[in-house]
Amino acid sequence: ETGVTQSPTHLIKTRGQQVTLRCSSQSGHNTVSWYQQALGQGPQFIFQYYREEENGRGNFPPRFSGLQFPNYSSELNVNALELDDSALYLCASSLQDSPYSGNTIYFGEGSWLTVV
Amino acid sequence: ELKVEQNPLFLSMQEGKNYTIYCNYSTTSDRLYWYRQDPGKSLESLFVLLSNGAVKQEGRLMASLDTKARLSTLHITAAVHDLSATYFCAVVVRRTSGSRLTFGEGTQLTVNP
Predict the structure, then answer these.
(1) What are the pLDDT digits (tens) for B17-76?
(2) Is any Cβ of chain A less than 8 angstroms from the Cβ of B100?
(3) B29 burial level (CB within 10 Å; 0-12, 13-18, 19+)
(4) Which carries the bigger pLDDT value, residue B97 or residue B44?
């Protein structure tokens, strides 16, 4: 139990639609990162939010966007869904710079998105 | 661009045997994580290696980091079926905009009785 909750756990969308995924970070954590994990691959960094601002972005197009709220929870929005967007989307909760400092990074259980 | 390569990608081993998973990365970093993932599940943190020469052990798993060789190893001793899972290494690169994890492709381990 990491204290990081994601919703929904599974969903099916049609190509071209839009989706919003949600993440509640662990208490006291001010940074949320989102990762996409396609089947059989390692997670890939989408972006990170720190104190409600985007704080780094991976190689994902602008149709992937996000928000962080004052309580540090976060949303990942994907517009104009494509078949290749089918993946497990993982939210990671941490303190700022935890990956470098070695502080624990907590992953949620993920949201499985299938685009048909 | 940072590349992280694991080998082997698939590993089938007998219970009681030893084996090593290798993680090579392409840029300078002295921070490396190992994670375990069971099918359909999220990532479970195993080890955090924070300096050159770091070695950590937990049960039948031991991880080490050689930053000069840009190599980390995950050694499995006397494997048991419960270790069957996919193992990922993840390298940290610090940027002005914060640090992030770059993952390898994963090593799918199957331990057979």
Answers:
(1) 999 999 999 988 878 999 999 998 889 999 999 888 899 999 999 999 999 999 999 999
(2) yes
(3) buried
(4) B44
CA nearest B74: which of B26, B112, B37, B23? Answer: B23
Name the residue with tokens 């990081």. Answer: A4
Give the residue with greater pLDDT, B93 vs A83. Answer: A83
The answer to whether residue B94 neighbours chain A at the CB level (below 8 Å) is yes
Tell me which residue of B32, B15, B9, B17 sits closest to B87, measured CA to CA.
Answer: B9
Asked whether the bond before A8 is cis by omega within 30 degrees of 0, the reply is yes
Taking residues B100-110, what's their average pLDDT?
A: 95
B105 and B9 Cβ atoms separated by less than 8 Å: yes
Nearest to A33 among B50, B95, B100 (CB): B100
